[in-house]
Amino acid sequence: MRMNVPARPGEVDLPPLSARSVVLSLLLGAHPPELTARDLVAGVERFGVGGSTVRAALSRMVAAGDLRRADGVYRLSDRLLERRRRQDDAVHPHTRAWDGDWEMPVITATGRDPADRAGLRTRLSDLRLAELREGVWLRPANLGRPWPADLDGVVRRFTARPDAPARELAESLWPLDAWARTARALLAHVEGARQPADRFTGLAAVVRHLLVDPVLPAVLLPDDWPGAELRALYDQHRRELSAAVLGTAP
User: Fold this and answer.
1) What is the pLDDT of residues 28-80, one digit of tens each?
2) What is the distance between the terminal CA atoms of the chain, rounded to a whole angstrom?
3) In what order do the strands lie in the sheet with 130-133?
4) Residue 125 CB contacts under 8 Å (≥ 6 apart), including other chains
């Protein structure tokens, strides 16, 4: 399972702000995910992006199918609503008590082209599964997320209790120490940010990092795992930043 960990410990991946990225972040963080053109322009302008640039970005995003516009209100497309759902699940994952069982989906479909195989691997990774060997995926059965019905034709699911010690198996499937190092670097960056733009880019990196948190049972995690702290920081600063940028209640 690929994780967005930095090349060197302590680094964080913070791409520069663009009008599109700020618009998407504002809408992905809004509840409900819709804002007027006026609010979006005013919100993005706070990050030093001119109003004409924002309006041009909005037009391009509507043309590309990223956004829908009706009566001066911009809403996320269905594809981006699914991204928002994943983002919300990343910040507030649905877990259940773990009894020692592991999910084991096995790819049974054959004859798929490379693009289809790559797409399937991405979807299984998005379900917080890790590949034990080619075609065999695994994770502790502690998540309450639904299984996509359309995968039933290409994947068969089993329940297993591997012979290997559970904690050692988890460490072999996910780079947990690297994930934790990046999480701590992001915590330090967001807490130390003095400018809204720096905090904004930091929060965007936080939610990307949470998307690849395997959300393992506590007994399988290293000591001082920073997952809960990173989620709490994101919730706190997202509300404060939305209040400052859009004038909403924190």
Assistant:
1) 777 788 899 888 888 888 887 888 899 999 999 999 999 999 988 999 998 88
2) 35
3) 130-133, 136-140, 102-107, 155-160
4) 1, 2, 212
Neighbours of 168 (CB within 10 A): 11
Average pLDDT over all residues of the chain: 87
The class that CATH gives domain 19-84 is: mainly alpha
Cα 123 to chain centroid, rounded: 13
The third-level CATH classification (topology) of the domain covering 102-160 is Alpha-Beta Plaits (3.30.70)
Burial of 14 (0-12, 13-18, 19+ CB in 10 A): middle
- Can you give the length of the chain in residues? 250
Q: What does the block give as tokens for 205?
A: 């990196």
Segments making up each domain of the chain, as ranges: 19-84, 102-160
For 212, the token pair is 């690849």
d(C-alpha 11, C-alpha 20), whole Å:
24
In the block, tokens 């400052």 appear at 244
Token pair, residue 243, equals 């209040």
pLDDT per position as a tens digit, 85-100: 888 899 999 999 999 9
Does the pTM exceed 0.85? no
